[in-house]
């Protein structure tokens, strides 16, 4: 909507980065991008646009950074497309625009971060950064020593071989696995290669944050958690090729999700 648009120099000025006059200079110098495109003077931006100066994402200082830990239920899709039934954005129903960091399969549950901070998304998602993600997995038959050994040392899937990882047997049909990469449906594909079917999959940790909330609930990360997380990901590269998810254009469907669905919980109801 027109009333939500701001001239680019005004937007930059309101972030505290520099004055509007100085903003005009850096726009003319080609140092500013909007959604990856170098704009002209006088261009207007919306709250959903990604504005960068010298490659660094800048935020409206009126918008407080949001960092949430969410325990995603099964059946919820990690998409910002509001046309998708049971999408994660509608499920959480947060008052400001946020998006997930990475993905968790619709059939899986567990920890996922939600944020409005594109820089932290870039750092966490870059595969070369080797950030740990821990899961508990239940399969359809008895786990053998061979299964643990094969899973630990690499499985050929998706035209590559998975990185060596830590795998520990918990019970006859349940194991724990710590990955440092995120191939599509990686754990399920690894198990399938060895003749096993995953019957339940839960992510219980991302880097330094462990799952400690009920299914369907979320909480803010504490200042201490955010500080430690930033310290752990600080060596990570921030580049334009990083896997920053571009939120799909919000499209409202005619049939909204029914809030009396028992899977849906009120925001903040712990």
Could you please describe the fold and organization of this structure?
- By secondary structure, this protein is α+β, with helices and mostly antiparallel strands.
- Helix content is 21%, strand content 23%.
- It is built from seven helices and 16 strands.
- Helix 1 (8-15) crosses helix 2.
Strand percentage: 15-25%
Sum up the overall morphology in one term. elongated
SSE class: alpha+beta
The low-confidence parts are 237-260, 262-270
The radius of gyration is 21 Å
Kindly state the percentage of residues in helix.
Answer: 10-25%
Distance between the termini: 35 Å
The main β sheet shows up as:
9 strands, mixed
Order of helices and strands: EHHEEEEEHEEHEHEEEEHEEEH
Continuous helix count: 7
Count of individual beta strands: 16
Question: What's the layout of helices and strands?
Answer:
Blueprint: E1 6-7, H1 8-15, H2 20-28, E2 32-34, E3 44-45, E4 51-53, E5 56-57, E6 67-72, H3 88-92, E7 99-100, E8 109-115, H4 118-125, E9 133-139, H5 145-153, E10 156-157, E11 160-161, E12 166-169, E13 174-179, H6 186-193, E14 198-206, E15 209-210, E16 218-220, H7 223-233
Parallel strand pairs: 8-14
Antiparallel strand pairs: 1-3, 2-4, 4-5, 6-8, 6-16, 7-8, 9-13, 9-14, 10-11, 12-13, 14-15
Helix pairs in contact: 1-2
């Amino acid at each position: 909507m027109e009333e939500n648009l701001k001239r680019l120099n005004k937007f930059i000025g309101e972030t505290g980065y520099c004055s509007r006059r100085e903003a005009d200079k850096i726009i003319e110098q080609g140092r500013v991008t909007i959604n990856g495109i170098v704009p002209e003077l006088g261009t207007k931006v919306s709250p959903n646009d990604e504005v960068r100066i010298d490659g660094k994402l800048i935020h409206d200082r009126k918008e407080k950074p949001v960092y949430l830990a969410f325990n995603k239920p099964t059946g919820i899709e990690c998409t910002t497309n509001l046309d998708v039934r049971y999408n994660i954005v509608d499920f959480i129903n947060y008052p400001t625009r946020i998006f997930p960091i990475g993905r968790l399969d619709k059939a899986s549950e567990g920890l996922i971060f939600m944020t409005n901070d594109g820089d932290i998304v870039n750092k966490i998602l870059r595969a070369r950064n080797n950030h740990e993600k821990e899961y508990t997995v239940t399969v359809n038959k008895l786990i053998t020593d061979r299964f643990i050994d094969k899973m630990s040392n690499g499985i050929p899937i998706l035209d590559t071989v998975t990185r060596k990882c830590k795998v520990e047997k918990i019970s006859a049909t349940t194991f724990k696995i710590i990955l440092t990469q995120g191939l599509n449906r990686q754990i399920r594909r690894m198990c399938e290669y060895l003749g096993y079917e995953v019957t339940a999959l839960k992510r219980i940790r991302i880097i330094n944050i462990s799952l400690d909330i009920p299914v369907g609930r979320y909480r803010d990360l504490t200042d201490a958690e955010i500080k430690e997380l930033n310290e752990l990901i600080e060596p990570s590269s921030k580049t334009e090729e990083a896997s920053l998810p571009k939120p799909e254009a919000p499209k409202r469907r005619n049939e909204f999700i029914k809030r009396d669905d028992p899977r849906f919980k009120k925001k903040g109801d712990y």
